[in-house]
Design a protein that fits this description.
18-stranded antiparallel β-barrel; 61% strand; Porin
Length: 407
């Protein structure tokens, strides 16, 4: 059980204001084994403020090694805005939005050297004109030796505007109900989902406690999403820190490669670093007057080369029962607000610290303190569009703090 408080800030001064931690969240997770074959988990979170929202999610994973390794899950969330900001209410007909997702994946070991992973996700968003979205994926992995893997992947990923508010984290992290409101960047225009067709071929090689990987990929993206924070539309009410504008920047094609190194140091530090380079071209859509006005660097008229460097460090200090997770990404393709020129070098980060509180333990219950701050806008995925995070302008820092009780 988690008792959390969360909020957003854009400057260090706002962090210490009374409004920076403005929402309280109750988050409960229940899990149990299903015999000796698998585990199920059910999670739920809710908050009550000017934004009243909740989310419930469930998963089932097989545990016993077998030819089939299943993962099945679903989530449903709803958001209702009871505030007075006309911009937040403009695109919500009845004051609420609802979204649900069902997914199923199977990893089938055809032989010790050949594995086929396949599955997909079905999502429904009630605020889209085309409410039903399907995201299939298939991957083939060949292992000539125990330390060498060759893979090929094909997927089509559909991403709805505002989906980051309604989807649970894919890595089993902090589950938060919808926290922010959003509206269309082009007044009167409906929301359109982004679709990314992703093809990749890769190879990985293990060396003792380390892994080196290389992957080449190609993407075709239609209706690439763009999100803007802290920008006001002409003749419209001022936006608030927790509200953003979302629209479509156009269609894109990208091809490139990615090299990655993962290692374990002294059994307590897990780290990885990945570098990717891609040649991409974003063909602007028609009617981008507000994108050009508020974020001209989100319009890319010519082919560009995008460099990206990502690193992850996760460590556990058993002497103090402390766990730390740090993610950082830097790229030369981030879009900025009006008056900033073209794309520029910028970064995104995510820091989480969990500290055990043994002096509060009783019986079989254990207390833990949580603090997290991030300005990543979307959860990372292997088949995401390379522009997904790059075309998010001025995302505020989101801070989460509280205590967790484990039974």
């Amino acid at each position: 059980m988690n008792l959390l408080t969360t909020g957003s800030f854009d400057t260090p001064q706002q962090l210490f204001s009374a409004d920076s931690l403005s929402r309280n969240i109750a988050f409960v997770r229940l899990g149990a084994p299903v015999g000796d074959r698998g585990d199920w988990t059910v999670s739920g979170a809710l908050t009550q403020a000017d934004i009243s929202s909740w989310i419930v999610a469930g998963t089932y994973n097989t545990r016993t090694p077998d030819r089939h390794d299943y993962e099945v899950g679903l989530s449903y969330s709803t958001q209702r805005y009871d505030g007075a900001n006309p911009l937040a209410l403009r695109d919500v007909a009845d004051g609420s939005r609802n979204a649900g997702t069902i997914y199923a994946y199977d990893s089938f070991a055809v032989s010790p050297a050949l594995t086929v992973a396949y599955g997909g996700a079905y999502s429904r968003y009630d605020y889209l004109d085309t409410r039903n979205l399907l995201s299939p994926r298939v991957e083939l992995t060949v292992s000539p030796t125990d330390r060498l893997r060759i893979s090929a992947e094909l997927s089509q990923r559909a991403l709805a505007p505002g989906a980051e508010e309604f989807l649970p984290p894919g890595d089993g992290g902090i589950l938060l109900p919808p926290q922010r409101t959003f509206s269309s960047l082009e007044p009167g225009q409906p929301f359109d989902a982004e679709r990314t067709t992703h093809v990749a071929v890769g190879v990985e090689r293990d060396f003792a406690g380390s892994t080196v990987g290389f992957r080449a990929f190609r993407q075709e993206i239609s209706d690439q999403l763009v999100a803007l924070f802290g920008e006001d539309l002409p003749n419209e009410p001022n936006t608030k820190l927790g509200h953003y504008l979302v629209g479509n920047a156009g269609d894109a094609v990208a091809a490139g490669c990615r090299a990655e190194f993962r290692t374990v140091i002294a059994g307590r530090v897990h780290g990885s670093v990945a570098y990717s380079v891609a040649n991409a071209r974003l063909t602007p859509a028609d009617g981008l007057r507000y994108v050009v006005l508020l974020a001209p660097s989100a319009v890319r008229p010519t082919t560009e080369r995008i460099h990206d460097l990502s690193t992850t460090i996760e460590t556990t200090v058993p002497e103090t029962a402390t766990r730390v997770l740090v993610l950082y990404r830097v790229s030369n393709g981030f879009a900025h607000g009006a008056g900033s020129g073209g794309p520029a070098v910028d970064g995104r980060f995510d820091v989480q610290v969990r500290q055990s509180l043994p002096f509060m333990n009783f019986s079989n219950a254990k207390w833990e303190m949580l603090f997290a701050v991030r300005n990543f806008f979307r959860e990372s995925a292997s088949d995401e569009s390379i522009y997904d995070e790059l075309l998010v302008v001025r995302p505020p820092k989101r801070v989460v703090g509280g205590v967790t009780l484990h039974f």
